[in-house]
Amino acid sequence: MIDPEVLARATAEVRRATGDEVIAEMFRRSMAENLPAVAERLPDGTTFVLTGDIPAMWLRDSAAQLRPYLLLCADDPALQDVLIGVLHRQLEYVVLDPYANAFNREPNGAGHTTDETEMSPWVWERKYEIDSLCFPLDLAYRLWRTTGRADVIDDRFKAAAEAIVELWTIEQDHENRSPYRFQRHDDRPSDTLVREGRGRLTRPTGMSWSAFRPSDDATVLGFNVPGNMFASVVLGYLQEIATEVLRDESLADRAKALKADIDDGIARHGTVDHPEHGRVYAYEVDGLGESLLMDDANMPSLLSIPLSGYAAADDPTYLATRKLLLSPENPYYYSGTHAAGIGSPHTPPNYVWHIALAVQGISSTSARERQRLLELLRDTTGGTGQMHEGFDVDDPSQYTREWFSWANAMFCELALVHAGVHAGIR
């Protein structure tokens, strides 16, 4: 799905930058195999993307898996068609149910059908996550700016964008305005919401509430700060598209106002004065005075703030937060004989995620750190040559998920960033 000449040039750049033939070959193979393994062009021109080993399409994962291809698609029209097809399928799903995070290829009723929420035959899972709605807007903006193609922003985009703005506005006051409820009756408390599906009590902050994290685990305090940061960024993108493409001043104004509310909420509620690190970002807050200092391997995370575009990699508050996250003060930071990095409550203790290691490299201002992390990724595949979800910091042969498309994509993005390959944003 990627032009062989485009891939050959990119691989040569990775080889030059890393001086490592194994890393270059892992990059070449992942880029050549990753997208064809998960993407299916449908008769209507859209593209359905499997989320690794699960037969459903997650809004978040399907966009995140495309990030390295976005860096190379400017000179590859056929690849652009595939990526635009992914966007258009995402937009159709958003209109079907903006609260859902994962969808079926067709309305076959597959998925978590016993969950107590408003399911439909199209929906695989209905865990509402604010970041699920950020990714299609981010993908639309990047494709529009990179390709300059008029067919990126079509009628589907406006309907989906209006649904997203409406939902995020409602969820600013979840307690009084939200119709969303979710319960799952299994043995994992992180799979369900307390208070008969409403989640823990929150008070409005200006930010928009989220039921679940990017890990698909339930939020603890309701307002996920990195998710709201990403929402702020993409609302800026939406304002730009609404103004320049859609010529819709009302939508642009709504996006601008909501972005201002969220930014104010992050400033007032989303930061904490830490006795050692100074002013840092919290991972979650509830508007009632509680805050959670941690980070999760899944993106958007606090570590990935520069990737979402909310703050630069050298921003003082980000750097202070980063120092805290990459230390034992983050309860999900693990260090062992083979690796150190951020894991997740979604996986066993002492398991670091390849995604988090890649994000650590991409968000670094140090070429030496990027090189070190690429070599660490190379050496912790458990002999498979593939990225995994999490792996044991003392024994990389112990891991979760044999093959994880999103993690492979993040490895490739880190390799491209290290090689100085950037998106051709116009």
Explain what the structure shows.
The protein is built from 16 helices and 15 strands. The chain has 426 residues and is mostly helical. The protein has a domain at 54-331: Alpha/alpha barrel (Glycosyltransferase). The strands form 6 sheets. Strands 3-4-5 form a 3-stranded antiparallel β-sheet. A 3-stranded antiparallel β-sheet has the order 6-9-10. The chain has a 3-stranded antiparallel β-sheet with strand order 13-14-15. Strand 9 (284-285) and strand 10 (291-292) form a beta hairpin. The longest helix has 22 residues, at 225-246. The radius of gyration is 20 Å and the shape is globular. 53% of the residues are buried. The model has no long low-confidence stretch (mean pLDDT 96).
> What structural class should be given to the helix and strand makeup?
mainly alpha
Assembly level: single chain
Specify Rg, calculated over alpha carbons. 20 Å
Write down the overall geometry: globular
Secondary-structure arrangement, i.e. CATH architecture of one domain: Alpha/alpha barrel
Helix percentage range: 40-55%
User: Sheet bearing the most strands, described?
Assistant: 3 strands, antiparallel
Helical stretch count?
16
Q: Give the amount of beta strand, in percent.
A: 5-15%
Question: What's the mean pLDDT score?
Answer: 96
* CATH topology label of one domain: Glycosyltransferase
Distance between the termini: 23 Å
- Order of the strands making up the biggest sheet: 3-4-5
Overall strand count = 15
CATH class of one domain: Mainly Alpha
Low-confidence stretches: none
GO biological process, one term: carbohydrate metabolic process
GO molecular function: hydrolase activity
Protein name: Glycoside hydrolase family 125 protein
Keywords: Hydrolase
